[in-house]
Write a structure and sequence with these properties.
Length: 332
C-alpha cells in the first residue's frame, strides 16, 4: 500500500505552530477555502498539515517542510516589496535551504508598493518554486511577482471564490432588507468614515447586527454603535456564530469593510456590499466585478441600501485549472 501524500500549508489562520487560531477570522475564512480546494485536488487520502505563516519555523516545522511532497502558501496578503524590513510571511532562505521551495495559492501583495527591492527578489527566489506555477489573487499581485523575476505565475483570484469559477455568477439583487449585518476592520480604522457609515445604516435599517472579526473589533464596534445601541445586536466573535447566523437568519443586507466576511455573505446568498479599505477588495473587484465601493463614496453606499443593484461576478476557470493541472499530472 502506498503511503498517503504529505501536503504542507503555510497557514495564515493560525498564529503559532501549536495551531492557535489567529485573531483575524478573515484568515480562517481563507483557510476553509484553501483546505477544501486541496482536499478536492489531492483526494481524501492526502495528509494536509499546517504550520503558521506568522512565526518562523521551529525544529518540528522544519521537519514537516522537508518531509512534504508539496509546500503551499495558503492565501492572504503575505508578499511585499521590502521584505527585509517588513515580512508578514516569516520565512527565510536558510529555512527553505533552496531545496524545499513553496508554491503560492491565491496569495496577494500587502498594499500598493514600489517594485520589489533586491533583498525581496533574492528572498523570493530562495523560498518560492521556479518550477511550479504560482497562483496569486489579483492582477496587481501578478505584476509585482513578475517584477520580482517570476514568469511562472497566474492570476486565479482568491481561493474563497474558486467554487464560482466558470459561468458568470449572478449576485443576489433582491429588494433591500430591513436588517443589515455590519462588519468593520479594527486595523484599517477611519473613525470619521466609519461613523458616517453607522449613521447611514442606523437611518436606513430597523436592526443592525454587528459581527466582530478581529480582536479589537468588539470594542471599536461598540464605541461607534453606542448612540444607536437600542437597534444593535452583537454576534459572538466566532466562525460558528457567523455561519449559524447566515444559515438561519436571512434574508438580510451585509455591508462592511471586511473583504472575506463579505465574500462569505455573498456565498451564503445574502445581498452584500464590500467597502474598500486597501488594495485587496479593489484589485479583486477590478478582475472579477465583485460588488465593492470606495470607502468615501457615501452616496453610492446609500444608493445601494435603497434599491436593488444587479451585479455579476466573473471568476475565470482556465487559470485555476492550469494551476491545478500541474499537480494532477504529477500525482497520477
Amino acid at each position: 500500500m502506498r503511503n498517503p501524500m504529505n501536503i504542507l500549508v503555510f497557514n495564515p489562520a493560525i498564529k503559532d505552530h501549536a495551531g492557535t487560531l489567529n485573531d483575524n477570522l478573515g484568515d480562517c475564512i481563507i483557510w476553509q477555502a484553501v483546505e477544501q480546494q486541496l482536499k478536492d485536488l489531492f483526494g481524501p487520502s492526502a495528509v494536509i498539515n499546517s504550520i503558521s505563516s506568522h512565526v518562523a519555523p521551529n525544529a518540528q516545522a522544519l521537519r514537516q517542510i522537508r518531509a512534504a511532497a508539496y509546500r503551499f502558501v495558503g492565501g492572504t496578503n503575505l508578499l511585499g516589496s521590502k521584505m527585509r524590513r517588513e515580512r508578514q510571511w516569516k520565512v527565510s532562505g536558510r529555512t527553505m535551504a533552496f531545496r524545499h521551495p513553496a508554491i503560492l495559492m491565491g496569495v496577494g501583495w500587502g498594499g500598493y508598493q514600489p517594485r520589489p527591492d533586491a533583498f525581496t527578489r533574492f528572498l523570493l527566489k530562495a523560498v518560492l518554486s521556479r518550477k511550479f506555477l504560482h497562483s496569486v489573487r489579483d492582477s496587481y499581485s501578478e505584476g509585482q511577482l513578475r517584477a520580482a523575476g517570476f514568469d511562472n505565475v497566474v492570476n486565479t483570484s482568491c481561493p474563497t471564490l474558486w467554487e464560482w469559477a466558470g459561468e458568470p455568477r449572478q449576485i443576489n439583487c433582491q429588494e433591500p432588507s430591513d436588517r443589515v449585518l455590519l462588519m468593520l476592520t479594527d486595523y484599517r480604522r477611519d473613525e470619521s468614515l466609519d461613523r458616517a457609515l453607522v449613521h447611514l445604516l442606523a437611518g436606513q435599517y430597523k436592526e443592525i447586527i454587528f459581527w466582530p472579526q478581529g480582536s479589537i473589533d468588539p470594542y471599536y464596534g461598540s464605541y461607534l454603535l453606542f448612540g444607536v445601541r437600542n437597534k444593535v445586536r452583537i454576534l459572538d466573535a466566532t466562525m460558528d456564530a457567523f455561519e449559524k447566523f447566515l444559515a438561519t437568519e436571512g434574508p438580510l443586507d451585509c455591508v462592511g469593510t471586511r473583504l472575506h466576511g463579505g465574500i462569505k455573505c455573498l456565498k451564503a446568498g445574502q445581498r452584500s456590499l464590500i467597502i474598500e479599505v486597501d488594495n485587496r477588495a479593489r484589485e479583486i473587484a477590478r478582475d472579477t466585478s465583485l460588488p465593492t465601493v470606495a470607502r468615501d463614496d457615501i452616496k453610492a453606499i446609500e444608493h445601494w441600501t435603497r434599491a436593488p443593484q444587479p451585479c455579476t461576478v466573473h471568476i475565470l476557470k482556465d487559470p485555476i485549472d492550469r494551476w491545478k493541472q500541474q499537480f494532477i499530472v504529477k500525482t497520477r
